[in-house]
Amino acid sequence: HSVALSGFPKELHAFNHGTFGHGAYFVEDSDHADEYSSDDKEGYYRGYYAMLLCRVTLGRAQILQGPDPIAESRIGPGRPFDSAIGPVPCSFGAFREFMVTDRDQVYPEYAVIYERLHRRATTARFSFSERG
């Protein structure tokens, strides 16, 4: 909510600590972004979820093969990289996360407000014929 109104904090190092150290994290797939979203408990958007669609300038990215909690130490002015990209394991493989440490690399372009709709599970029906 506050990011949508006032942008990201000046110091992204204090924003989040994740797989690649301190910084702002982004994913390329809305299914994965939804995992980090929570519904509004009261007010006008009660029961709805939100995510930001951001433009992120990666610059020279360090490509990581796995978790690297000190990747942030190689990112920023006077350092070899501007961002980090790496895999994050999930139940069906992995997805890519992007991390930046400078708020000027991030432009929150859209706030997406949505409702989760779950399909009712259907029971699979099988028919077998036996030949004797």
Describe the structure.
With 132 residues, the protein is mainly beta. The strands form three sheets. Strands 3-7-6-5 form a four-stranded mixed sheet. It has a two-stranded antiparallel ribbon with strand order 1-2. A two-stranded antiparallel sheet has the order 4-8. A hairpin with a 2-residue loop joins strand 6 and strand 7. The protein has two helices and eight strands. Helix content is 8%, strand content 33%.
Q: How many DSSP E strands?
A: 8
**Widest sheet: strand ordering:** 3-7-6-5
Shape: globular
Radius of gyration: 20 Å
Could you describe the largest sheet, including whether it forms a barrel?
4 strands, mixed
Integer average pLDDT: 84
Regions with little confidence, pLDDT below 50 for 5+ residues = 124-132
Tell me the series of helices and strands, N- to C-terminal: HEEEHEEEEE
Strand content: 25-35%
Structural class: mainly beta
The helicity comes to under 10%
Q: How widely separated are the two ends?
A: 66 Å
Number of distinct helices: 2
